[in-house]
Amino acid sequence: MELKSRSDTEELPQITVVSRAEAVRSKLIDTFSLIDHLRGLSQAVPRHNLREFLDPSRQRKLMQGDHHQLVRFSVRPTHDRILYGQRQQCRLRVRYNRWAPISLWAGWVLERPFFTNLIIFLIFLNTILLMIEIELVNTKDVKMLPVMLALEVASWFMLLIFILEILLMWLYNFFLFWKSAWNIFDLFVTILSVLPEVVVLSGVSTEALWLQLLRICRVLRSLKLFTRFGQIRVIILALVRALKTMTFLLVLLLIFFYIFALTGIYFFENYTRSDIQDLEYQTYFVDMPNSLVTVFILFTLDHWYALLQDAWRVPGLSKTFSSIYVILWLLLGSIIFRNIIVAMMVTNFQAIRSELWEEATHLAVQHKADIFKRQIIKSRRHHQRDGKAGSKGSGTIHVIPNTSHQFPNPPVSDMTYPENVTKTTVPKDAPSAQENLLSADSPGLVDWETHVHQNLPGLMEMDQDERVVWPRDSLFRYFELLEKLQYNIEERKQLQDFAVKALINLEDN
Amino acid sequence: MDRLPMVFSREHVKEISSSILNLSSPGLWSKIVNFRRKDTEFCEYVKRFIEGHFFSLLMISTISSNALCMVLETYYEIKSNMFLMFEVVEVIFTSIYWFEFYIKLYVDPIGYWKNGYNLLNVVILIIISVPFYMWKLYGRHYQYLNIGEGIQSLRILKLIPYSRGIRTLITALGQTIYTVASVMTLLFLLMFIFAILGFCLFGSSDGGDVNNWGNLAAAFFTLFSLTTVDGWTDLQQDLDEREFTLSRAFTIFFILLGSFVFLSMFVGVMIIHTEDSIKKFEKELANERHIAVLQEKQNILRKQQAEVNRLMQKGKKSEFQTFSELVEGFKKTLRHTDPMVLEDFCTTLPFIDIYLSTLDNQDNTIVKYSYHRKRD
């Protein structure tokens, strides 16, 4: 194999550089780190993969051994998913554990539907009882006393259960608890509920105002409901993300608020200082905070015409400028900006929904890739078996149906379909059997190349730890042969072009 | 050097026109046409200063403190106590704004006017000088003085060019301007038709509702009030008192058309455009990233090739003709029992299977094709 020479003095034959062959050669150089080797820099070859290095037990073994080992870095985007196999191994480990697995029991309890429904029911009950208690809080009726006592007891009981739930979550996995914002929110709300009682018990007087306020925080317990329902979680997540992307829009809106508030103060100066009695909205533009609130009121399109008509009653105010001000702000702020905000929310929600869909479709694509892989392996096996039997000679010509490009049949029939066809195939010459097989493998209606192209990306990103062990010299030979194959294919393509041209010339003459 | 013929030909043409226009000399014209800056180094220095961090920091802090000062000026007590300080600060701010204008103009006199944000700066400078001239020309008690002071609040718009996020937002929104303008025009037309109709129906000076429908401006306001459905029940009550027959149908029909249909259409149109522009933006980003990645790969390939070539050149002394001979020595060190664990896709069995099957398939197709042709 020859390379393109740079110097003009040497007499190396120049050939066209085939890009795929280039890629294969560069892969070879990369895998064996030939450049370092040829420069004489290092004689070692990376013998370990990144995954071995990151695995803590293996890393310890490595560090105890030779420190000068090289590690090969291969960057592949992996999806963080727990495989079923990992789960089973974990179960095995837990089963043979010396100490009782309390964390496992806690996890089991937390995931029971009975438990989650109980918590939801208790939250609802808490809200209702709180409402009843507020109604009765100031009554002096003696007969109501047992009712109030019962309400108090129920409230304490529910608080206890919420604390218990948090303890269970801590038992299950303490560090994972803090990673989720929902759990921190739960903890915060529960502590807010507990705090007044604890403070009362430790002797502070019950008349302090902030204590009363803290008791009211009990109502926040109903907010715990938000974390339970999946739909609400999705909506809140989408909302937070939408707000994050809209920060600049909100900044722009704030700038406009500022502009119109300041301008309003100056434009309506005569209105603010006028001596006419019964002006309804006279304090609306008196200083900056009021002006900001007024601008917000105009933003929500509330009583703008009444404000304008009231302002017109003052003789010194120029009608044109004030009406220009109000109309401009209505158009710009309330109509245009609000619709821009709506539009951005809609696009954000769509983006978030498509992201959530991507998770689901990823699994589907993986499934298809799996099936594709099985088909290929089967086809190779049959091909090898038939290839030994007959030879490639003349045979009946079948054109592989290139009809339509519908989707393959559902997976189940895919698996059985090739088997049926191979059983009923009459043993013919090799090419026709092979064609039959190939047409049977392509599930019905799609030709081979399209099928491959459809499934190849899924195959390339398969999740499983697909690691192949090669002997070193075979790997080197494989890369060399692959490169030679690329050059041969290129040459063959040229020859075929010539053949086709010759045939066409033959026909023309 | 090669500009000389052009100068001559231009001179030739300009000879005729200048003789018509009676310019002083052809030399002056060629000097104007061929004007090249002689102070390029200083110009470069100033340009770097403008694009540096210090300048933008200076401008941002100036504009923010100016905004804060303007807010404080609205409080009468503060203003009367610290009047002198406000005056001094005002002079400082104005001088900084003029300095920015002159320095940017100096760097690029002709290209300055092509940038929209620079035009905004010029407009704001004009606005800043408005109260001063009002005061000079009309005296202290001019009735429109507060208007002039009011529009000073636009100074904060100078902040926009210094923030990249807002700039991208505005360019994205700017593309929706045409749609917005067309919807607004449509709405205006609709209101115009209904205003004339309402004036004729309800605004006649005897027995009609002169307040709300008396003249065109009032009719427009009333209709705008109906479009934004704020306080329209009061207006409708006014009409009801005078017992017009069609008034309710008129109002309800207009509210349906103007508020429900038009404003919702507005929302829909904006949603479509925002989606389009965001998708375009993201596609551009993805394309850029893709191209950058491809470039990187090409670079790495090229560097590798260069390295190998260099090694081959070095090894010319020992007569290495081809790559395979170069690595001959390396190959000898490879042993069969050494395992290499790879995760790349191109060394996995499915890849080999797929590749060889595809090649076989291609072979078959070619064979069939040639048989086909032979037959015919």
Automatic annotation (TrEMBL), chain B:
One Pfam match, given by its short name, reads Ion_trans
Cellular component GO terms held in the UniProt record:
acrosomal vesicle; CatSper complex
Keyword Transmembrane on this protein? yes
Output the GO biological process annotations, alphabetical, semicolon-separated: flagellated sperm motility; sodium ion transport; sperm capacitation
- Keyword Transmembrane helix attached: yes
Where is the chain membrane-spanning? Answer: 54-76, 82-103, 115-135, 177-201, 213-229, 249-272
Please, which domain of life does this record's source organism belong to? Eukaryota
- Its main subcellular localisation, reduced to a broad class, is membrane
InterPro entries xrefs: Ion_trans_dom, Volt_channel_dom_sf
Gene Ontology MF term list: voltage-gated calcium channel activity
Q: Its membrane topology, per UniProt?
A: Multi-pass membrane protein
What is the protein's name according to its record?
A: Cation channel sperm associated 3
Q: Where in the cell is it found?
A: Membrane
Q: Which keywords does the record carry?
A: Membrane, Transmembrane, Transmembrane helix
Domain Ion transport, by residue range, is 54-271
